[in-house]
Amino acid sequence: MNLDLPPDALAFRDEVRDWLAANVPAEPLPPVDTPAGDAAHRAWERRLADAGLAVVSWPARYGGRDAPALHALLFEEEYHAAGAPIRIGQNGLFLLAPTLFADGTAEQRERILPPMARGDQVWAQAWSEPEAGSDLAAIRSRAERVEGGWRLTGQKTWSSRAVVADRAFGLFRSDPRAERHRGLTYLMVDLRAAGVTVRPIRQLGGEAGFAEIFLDDVFVPDADVIGAPGDGWRVAMSTAGHERGPGLRSPGRFSAAARRLVAAWQEGGDPGLRDRVADAWIGAQAYRMHAFAGVAASPSMVKLFWSELDVGLHETALEVLGPRAEIDRAWADGYLFALAGPIYAGTNEIQRDIVATRALGLPR
Amino acid sequence: MNLVPAPEQASFAAALHDLLSAAEVPAAADRWADGDHGPGRRVWERLAGAGVTGLAVPERWGGLDAGPADLVIAAEELGHHAVPGPVAETLAAVPVLLAGLSKSDGRPALAGGRLPSMDRLGETDGRLPLMAGLDEPGRWLRALAEGRILGTLAAPPWLPYAVDADAAGVVLFADRGAIGAGRIGAARCSLDRTRRLFEVVPAGPLEACPAVGRALDLGALVCAAQLLGAGRALLEVAVAHARSRAQFGGPIGRFQAVRHRLADVAVGLEFARPLLYAAAVTVAPRDVSAAKVACSDAANRAARAALQVHGAIGYTQEHGLGRWLTKVRALSLSWGTPADHRARVLAELAKEDGWN
Asked: Which CA distances in Å does B39 have to A89, A356, B170, B265?
C-alpha cells in the first residue's frame, strides 16, 4: 500500500493546476440551462478540449490523451478545487461515452465521441417515464421496427440537460410482447428531429434543469442502436453503473466542498458544529481514498455514500453560515443540487435493495 | 497510489482467520471474562506463532519489524474474532515504546531500578507482575514477540487505565514524551466483560521517550482496525440471522426495514476501510484520527443494527453477539474518543494550507 503519485501524475497535476489558474473564468458563467449559459458552457468545453484537458483518459483519436484513470481523478480534483464551471457535456462524457467504449461500435465511437469531447454535441438522458421511475423496467415508450431503423413514440421525463441538449440516449420497448427487462433496446435520438417536443421543467431552485421529452413517431437509424436490439437492459445497467460510480460524481467535487466547509467553520463558525464539520471532511476523504484505492466497488454502495455525504456536507455548511446561508448563492445552490442526489441515478432505496441482494445475499 | 492489500497480506489475513476460527476464541473469551486467562493466553501463543505479536518488534529482538499496514491487517482479524486481551497495546504501542527506549547498541537505555527477572515470569504466585524498572527493554521485546508476555499501558488522557494489566507481563505508564514502568492499582470492570481496567501510576521517574507520539498513533490505528474487523463480524452475523430467521412466513431479510439498515452498515464499513489503509501508509495524526472516527462509527452502526436484527436473542449472553457489541463500544471510547479524534482532524487541518 502506498499513497505516492508517480512523477508523470505529479507533472500532469501541475499542468492542470496552472492551466486552470490561468483560464477559469473569474465570474460564474450564466446558468447552464439558459441560452446564454448554454453558449458560454459550450465555449468553455472547447477551451478545455483545445488544451487537451476535456477527456484526458480517452484515446487520443477521440480527443483524449490515453492517460490512466488516476489522471482523470486528479484532473477532477483540480477542476473542483479551482471552482471551474459545471461540465455541460457531463451526461455524454461520463455516462454515454463509457457505454460506447463498452458496447458501441467503432463507427459509433468515431462519429459520436469527438464532437462530444468538444462540447459541439451535448447529450441528455432519456430514462424515466411518468409511470416508470424507480421501476425502470416498466417503461412503455415504444421503438417500432421500420425500414433502416426504428420509430419512437412515447414520453420521457426528468431528462437532465434536455433543455439545451442536441441528442439523447435512453431505453425503449422494441418488442411489445416482451415484458419487463426483456425486449428493450438502447437508442440514441436526435432531439432536433421531427416529432420531438421538449418541455422544460423548473426545479426547486427555479432553473429548468430537466425536461420532459415527447416523442411522436421519431425516426432513429439502425446506426444509433447501442448493443443488440432487445439487449438494452444490459447496456443500460452498464450506463447506470457509471452514473452511480465515481466517474460522474468524482471525489474532487466533495473534497473541494469539504475544504470550503472547513475554512468557513474556521472563520468563526459555531464551535458546537465542530463534530459535524469534521465528519463532512472525513466523509469526503473516505470517498477520495476509496476512489484512489483502486478497489472494485459496488456502484450502488458508491452512490449511497456520495449522495448522503453531499446532503450532510451541505446541511452542515448552511448551519455554519447561519442566517447568511440562504443568500449565499454557491452554498444554497449546492444544497438544492445535493438534495437531488439521493433521488437521481436510481433512488437510494433502490440502491439499498441492490446492495442487500447482491452484496449481502439477502432474500428478496 | 494503491490501497489494496498485497496478495501476501491477504493470505496473512486469511491464515489468521483460519487460525482463530479453530482456536475456540468464544470459550477463551468467556473464561477471560471470569478471570481465567489460560485459554486466552493459548490463543495469544498461537498468534505469536503466526508472527502477530512480533510485527512491531525490531528484528534484532526476534520480531518482524513489519510496517503499519501489516499491523492493521492482523488487528482487523483479531477484531473480527473479538480476541480478548490488550490487542493494540501488545501489538503496537508497547513494542514501539520499548523499542524507542532501546539504544542502538542494545545496552540498557534506563539505568537503575529493579525489574523482575525474566526467569521468574509466570511465577507471580497470584501477585500481579509488577515492573519496577525498564532496563533491558530488548529482553521484554523478545518476550513480547515470542508471546511469553502481553503488554499494556496507561496513557492519559486517551488511556486513563491500563486494560488487562493482570494478564500483562509489562505495564507501562506513558505521558507526553516520557514513559516508565507502571504500578498497578485497583481494577474496574468494563461494559465489555472481557476487559478489566486497572489504575496505574508511574513506578518511578519517567524517562524521555520520543516514540510516545508514534506509539499512541499506532495504537489508535490498530484499535481502529480492530473496530473495523468487529464491525464486519457484526454485519456477517446479522446477515446470517436475517437469512435464516423466519417471521411472517419467511426470512426477515426480505423486509426493506431490515435490508436497508444492513445495506447502510455495509456502506459504512466499505468506506471506513480506505481511511484505515491510508492512515496505515502515513500514520499522520490527521489520518489516524479520521480512520478512528470512521471505523468507530461504522462499527457502532453495525452493532446497533446487528442487535436490532437479532432481537431479544441477541441480547442474551449465551448468544455471543455481545462479545462484539460491547467491545465495539469500549474500543470506540478507548485510544481517543470520537470527539477527541474529530477535534484532532480539524486541528491538523488548520495547520495545512494546501489542498491535500
From this structure: 64, 38, 20, 32
